[in-house]
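It is worth pausing here to work through a concrete case rather than discussing structure prediction in the abstract. The textbook approach is simple: state the sequence, then state the predicted structure, then interpret. We follow exactly that order.
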Amino acid sequence: MPDRRVNIHARARPAMSAIDYIAMALLIIGGLNWAMVGLFDVDMVATLFGPATALTRIVYVVVGLAALYSIYTMAKMASSKRH
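Step two, the predicted structure:
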């Protein structure tokens, strides 16, 4: 008679990938920067890399891309819970 036990780990979500951790770190950095701007009127990214420099803009774009990736990840997780 075949074994009828259910593997409880069969549908477990895989661990976060490296890109998930990078996106999370960038979102934390971006969130802390916005908190500094709101509380103390200090933009740490602009302070570190110079106001309105290309590098500052690149940092902002990368943080924004991390946010978009996180939206995609959240939507993917929500759709997998429905199935």
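Step three, interpretation. The CA atoms of residues 58 and 64 lie 10 Å apart. The mean pLDDT is 88.
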